[in-house]
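Entry:
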Amino acid sequence: MFRKTLLIVLSACLLAVSYNHVVLAQGKYSIKEMTPQVQGALENRRDRFDKLKELKASGAIGENNQGYVQVLAKGEGADEIVSAENADRKLIYEAIAKQNELQGALDTIEKVFAQVQRDKATAGDKIQTEAGDWITK
């Protein structure tokens, strides 16, 4: 029951990043302190948004069911950008968990963010379902 409630709360309140701005939920579970590390991670994500979009459109990368991007086809510098993106996402997820005193909830935060990313995916993007299957949105 706690996990389901946490998922609902996080779904309603989780951080979502788009190409030109950061939307922080107006709720209980959000980034409470914009540390230099979190700010840097958010700026890095914004700066690589166009390249990620390009790689997703080409099918080289996709959004997995754990809240991270994953290389699906080698080339085009996908490995480097995926590694950097995933490091920044993890830093943000950990900050949400720490700042909201959600010890042991990183897995849940990652899964909620994965759902946010699946919902935001553009037609033609590769996404991994909760069950683990890769599909084209």
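DSSP finds four helices and six strands in the chain.
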